[in-house]
Amino acid sequence: MPKPSDPSEPSESAETPPSVRQWLGLVAVALGVALIVVDITIVNVILAPIIEDLSIGSSEAQWIQESYAITFAALLLVTGRLSDLYGARRIFLLGLAVFGATSLLAALAPSGGLLILARFVQGVGGAMILPTSLALLNATFSGRARGQAFAVWGSTIGAAAAVGPLIGGWLADFSWRWAFAINIPLVALIVAGGLLYLDVSPRTRGRIDGVGAVLSAAGLGLLAYALIEGRTHGWLMTTKPLEVGGFSWSGGPSPVLVAFLASALALGAFWRRQAALDRSGGEPLMDVGLFSIRSFRNGNFVTLMVGLGEFGIIAVLPLWLQFALGYSAFQAGLALVALAAGSFAASGASFPMAATVSPLAQVRIGLALETAGLTMLALIASTDSAWWLIAIALFVYGIGVGFATAQVTNIVLVDVPPRSSGQGSGIQSAARELGSALGIALLTTLFFSTLASGMTDRLTRGGMAAGEAEQLGEVVTESAGSVIGVLAGDPRTATAAEAAREAMAVGVQVSGYVCAGLLLLALAATLFMSPKARTGARAEEGQNEGPGEERSEELSGRQEARGPAHSSVNGPAHGSTHGPAR
Description:
Structural class: mainly alpha
Largest sheet: 2 strands, antiparallel
């Protein structure tokens, strides 16, 4: 009997190299993912001209920023299941169509209300694209090529998050509407590439658990809302009114606390329902049995921690660059290009490394480099940090993002039965998005708390009355630092501006160290991961691939035992299709 493969070593079985058509399909998938990630970060830069042009208030501005992310996170599990039922390619292309149509609506929006509506529906398109992109790659590529494909996919996410502010700063010089309009020709190009170069996807016979879909969407949506809005409205008691239309929540328990509680109830009910359907042979929206696969369970925890550590720092860096160092919006975006360059460098390096370095080892290398880059950034953060030192730190960090983000996805999905690829991709995407939302909530709260307290302490030590110092600290914090330039221009408040810059630099230092610590925790968690790569050798009769693989085969067998009405299909890379291809 062949010896089980060592998870720390790459597979050496003979493989058929991917065709040029498959690599071109990967390009289409990567560009689709880039679109949805850029739209998360680009709005932060173009928000000021939107407010001015549409004459909207702070409440509407906040919903323009956050509506996309909330809908996006809420629907990931549902779209993952739709991917299994109707074919990953079909849902991917439909998501692109929704994204393109709503980009046109956003570009032409004459009012804040219509722009918010467009952003909500745009999140639906994004939620259809992300998990299906994973399912498409997982089905199209195998063995060493799968690791290379995920390297491109992961590097695209890291680079797109970094260049979003740069693109937004550049387009804002013309019109904020171009930030949405530019998506339309890109969507047309990606759809054409998908139709030409992506194989039709097999689909599963089955149905959607409607109750489960509502519970998961409500639970994830409320959780994303609470994480995003906690600093604004208060984590426990209401500190700022929530206004929606004519309704105002102005006192008592915070709407964020209520959202957390409602989310916990909805997700708890969702889990119990899915477990009950699984036991009774029904059709769950999410197969909870997937969490019995060690690589999937632990890999999703690492995904959560990676998202928490990676995206939190990106939320605060532009503020420091613009308001403490005096960069323009475009210059701040340009500084983040070093991160994108590092991410793409990792993607290029991963191709030759795939022959000798396992995906798990690449994740560990990536997490170590991310930790090193963030530690360096924390060490150099000041009110006069040299741009080249910032670029070096972000480049090292970007290399780590390129390795870790890509290959952790490879590990999470490697032992998932192909018939459950859509569900597995949806769960992994949800873990990533919740991790990024949690990271942004944690890091922005920490950053602004450090800014407020640090500025107040500096001013009171300089002889300013405590009440006046606190008031100035609150003004700077509420403006996210944008008033620092105004304060610096007035001799009476120049001291306050300098104190704000110093406190902001300390906020970046603290944020960098905290993110580095979280990524070290993720690195420690990889010690409990032991994926078994799917290869052609697995098909050999009598091969034993260890507990993780036995469990994934058990899941496959259990799904087949449910009968033809519940049968699923393998992806094209595994040579089986038991249903209409779409």
